[in-house]
Amino acid sequence: MTGWLTIKRTFLAVVFLGLFALALRNVSDPDVWWHLKTGEYIAEHHSVPHTDSFSYTRAGEPWVAHEWLTDLVLYELLGTTGFGGLIVFFAAVICAAFYLFYLRCGADVYIAGVAVHYAAWATEPVWGVRPQVISLLLTSLWLLILERSERNPKLLWWTLPLTLLWVNLHAGFALGLALSALFLVGELIEHMLGRSQFCAARLRTAAFIFLLDLLIVPLNPNGLRMFSYPIETLRSTAMQNYITEWASPNFHHAEYWPFLLIVLCTFAILSWSRQQVRLRDVLLLLVSLYAGLCSIRMMPLFVLIAVPIVCQRVGDWPTSQPEPARSPSVPAFLLNAAIVLGVVVFACVQTADVIHRQPQSELKGFPARAVAFLQTHPPSGPIFNHYDWGGYLIWKLYPSTRVFIDGRADLYGAKLLNEFADTYQFKDDWQRTLQQWRIGTVLIPPDSAMATGLRSSSGWTVAYEDSQAIVLNAPSRAIQTAPARQ
Questions:
Q1: Is residue 172 within 8 Å of residue 138, measured between CB atoms?
Q2: What is the DSSP letter of 441?
């Protein structure tokens, strides 16, 4: 009876229950709101939008809703379980991603368990209730399939349904295809140099399945467009300039130090290890490192590749004989059970606390009270809004009010993003944007340069203000109401 709860199983229970508790995040990503509205649109119209209708600055322009299936899942999950369901679901997705990661970290349970938590710490900057987390899970699964296919090539066939699912969930499907290509190129080079144990027949099979994966990509509402969309996103200077996550990690900030330490430790351990590093692994490490240094969003790719390679070498250094498995005594069993129960209680309390804090998180991150004001005092003209609040306004005010801009930087392009930035920073030509788009209402943070400038501009009136946001009306479209300060 006591044999099932061994020390190792207790350790793993603590690792993954603790990881689940750490992965719980409030719904605070600025983009999640327009994802929810897109899911609502798909559910109501039974079709995927191909042009923008959420903004007036890009109304009718082509829009690639590459996350359409994730958007629909988010909307349906919210309608069924509320924000609590979204919070728990994405924490579970993160745990699943790192369980698959754990399976690649060698036979030593303790080294692999510690690696899971350190790798999770290094990737924490990209966690949250957001579609990108789905790609984290599928990237982890894809790497597991590729590595296990060395012993069982038939596993590669699973990449076909996985590609079909992934290409409809998120544009991150390109990571899977890129990993398959790197595996193929690496193993082909090793084969040509006589350093590979794999036969040419296996490489041909892998290449054939990779070709089938490519043929599956167009099986989505955006068709062939999905081949070019991920590349355009990666090459977008506007995305890198205006979206922090697409910029290079700034190692002056402590949140990126765990990633830096993984980079340094990886190459130090590989240089000291007596095991020869495969050319394929070197190729994967270098490409993923380059991607991680170019973009914060790509850091998890290097972590998922590098840490298991290191773990498999570190696990070989203590060359002691493995201890035979023994059933714990009754006191040890009770202690293990108490530890697991304690972590379960902690995870449940943490879950309840995060869900309870969701309303406060929304108030802290988004202009909830100002939006409530606008719902009762609709803008009399186009609204100019803060970039990070565009998605929230879409969720709360569409279709009665359309936004100037939101988190879909690929839709708006560099020209409009630059125009927004110049106006928001209240630079010399700020009036041109407001006149060109006939802005009647401005919704921005009260401490912004634009808010300060408009307060002193002739005719602009404060319709509403609190600590989070200020609503200002243009001279010719002012809403006749007294300022509300909170």
A1: yes
A2: E
Instruction: Give the C-alpha separation, 224 to 201, whole Å.
Output: 30
User: Which residue shows structure tokens 């803060």?
Assistant: 386
* Rg, the chain, Cα only: 26
How far is it, in rounded angstroms, from Cα 276 to Cα 281?
A: 10
At residue 106, the pLDDT reads: 87
Q: What six digits make up the tokens of 424?
A: 């928001």
* Residue pLDDT, tens place only, 142-163: 999 999 998 889 999 999 999 9
Alpha carbon distance 475, 441 (integer Å): 10
Would you call 464 helix, strand, or coil by DSSP?
A: strand
With a threshold of 0.90, does the pTM exceed it?
Answer: yes
Report CA-CA distances (Å) from 228 to 72, 183, 232, 255. Answer: 23, 22, 6, 32
DSSP-derived secondary structure letter, 364: H
Q: What pLDDT shows up at residue 479?
A: 40
User: With bands split at pLDDT 50, 70 and 90, how would you rate the model's confidence at 274?
Assistant: confident
Residue 225 CA to residue 230 CA, distance in Å, equals 9
**CA-based angle 221:168:121, to the nearest 5?**
150
Q: Mean pLDDT across the stretch 170-199?
A: 87
Per the rule left: phi > 0, alpha: psi between -120 and 50, beta: everything else, 297 is alpha
Q: What is the DSSP string of 171-239?
A: TTHHHHHHHHHHHHHHHHHHHHTT-----HHHHHHHHHHHHHHHHHTT-STTTTHHHHHHHHHHH-HHH
Q: Model confidence over 431-472: pLDDT tens digits? A: 899 999 999 999 999 999 999 999 988 789 999 999 999 999
CB 142 within 8 A of CB 101: no
How do residues 72-120 score in pLDDT, each as one tens digit? Answer: 999 999 999 999 999 999 999 999 999 999 999 988 899 999 999 999 9
Helix H or strand E encompassing 67: none
* Sheet containing 441-444, strands listed edge to edge, beginning at the edge strand earlier in sequence: 383-385, 441-444, 470-473, 461-465
Task: Specify which residues 361 forms β-bridges with.
Answer: none
- 8-state DSSP, 442: E
Instruction: With a cut of 70, say whether residue 323 has pLDDT above it.
Output: no
Smallest Cα–Cα separation from 70: which of 158, 130, 136, 159?
130
DSSP string covering 393-405, please? HHHHHTTTS-BS-
Q: Enumerate domains of the chain plus CATH numbers.
A: 12-124+329-357 (no CATH), 366-477 (3.40.50.12610)
For 248, left (φ over 0), alpha (ψ -120 to 50), or beta? Answer: beta
For residue 146, how many other CB atoms are within 10 A of its CB? 22
Of 192, 298, 200, give the one whose Cα is nearest residue 248.
Answer: 298
Angstrom distance (rounded) from CA 456 to CA 472: 12
